[in-house]
Amino acid sequence: VHPNVSQGCQGGCATCSDYNGCLSCKPRLFFVLERIGMKQIGVCLSSCPSGYYGTRYPDINKCAKCKADCDTCFTRNFCTKCKSGFYLYSGKCLEKCPDGLEANNHTMECTSIVHCETSEWSPWSPCTKKGKTCGFKRGNEVRVREIVQHPSARGNPCPATSESRKCIVQRKRCQKEGKGKKNREEKRKKSNKDESKETRQESKGRAARRQNREQRENNNKTQPKKRKAPNKEQDPAPADTAH
């Protein structure tokens, strides 16, 4: 062993030197050279840093640099993330996307152009005018549809999602206020309430009359019967008749 080579190294190094750092790594670790100023130092890492990809060999595992326009890569010829200003497409970093594709500035990739898609039109609505369906002859009816797929940046924009057209209906009078179903229901409830009130009042009246009648009957039973006073005007005694 060279005098400058040490066997008791730190940081995953199998062999190292004071000047060059790690010279070889322990099993399963990757060897990579890091530049510090004008000097390169060998280090051993569990995974390769950004801008490098790992290669395994029987005697040593190394980290090799990706292409200049590639931020991370799987191999030298297959990039997984591009540097700023480039768009990823099929493992390559391009300044401009091919025809039929568009640049996605969010993912920094070349993606397919997506056009707008809508659902089928709904049936036409009832003919109305100022929110009413009666009291007019000419009004408007509408129909709508929903957006199923929003377009991408270069995709075809979405068309209108609603349509309106004139309509003609047979004129009919609007129901007057108080003639509707709701008002009829309220009237029915009020009528039932009034009938219930009258029924309660009649029941109370009958009960009061029955109580008074029973009271009079009880009073008649408990009071003694009055005797008839003798007639103060009596017939005069018969006069003596002369014999």
Short description:
This protein is of the alpha+beta class and 243 residues long.
Element pattern in H and E: EEEEEEEEEEEEEEEEEH
* SS summary, helix count: 1
Helix/strand class: alpha+beta
CATH class annotation of the domain at 1-65: Mainly Beta
Low-confidence stretches: 237-243
Can you tell me the CATH topology of the domain at 1-65?
Hormone Receptor, Insulin-like Growth Factor Receptor 1, Chain A domain 2
Radius of gyration: 55 Å
Quote the beta fraction. Answer: 25-35%
Shape designation: elongated
Describe this structure as you would to a colleague.
The protein has one helix spanning 181-222, and strands at 5-6, 13-17, 21-25, 30-36, 39-45, 52-56, 61-65, 70-75, 78-82, 87-89, 92-94, 101-104, 109-112, 117-118, 138-144, 147-149, 162-168. The chain is an alpha+beta fold and 243 residues long. The strands form 8 sheets. It has a 3-stranded antiparallel sheet, with no helix packed on it. It has a two-stranded antiparallel sheet with strand order 4-5. The longest helix has 42 residues, at 181-222. The model is unreliable at 237-243 (pLDDT under 50). This is R-spondin-3.
Topology, please?
Blueprint: E1 5-6, E2 13-17, E3 21-25, E4 30-36, E5 39-45, E6 52-56, E7 61-65, E8 70-75, E9 78-82, E10 87-89, E11 92-94, E12 101-104, E13 109-112, E14 117-118, E15 138-144, E16 147-149, E17 162-168, H1 181-222
Antiparallel strand pairs: 1-2, 2-3, 4-5, 6-7, 8-9, 10-11, 12-13, 14-16, 15-17
Domain R-spondin Fu-CRD: 11-110
Subcellular location: Secreted
Subunit structure: Interacts with the extracellular domain of FZD8 and LRP6. It however does not form a ternary complex with FZD8 and LRP6. Interacts with WNT1. Binds heparin. Interacts with LGR4, LGR5 and LGR6.
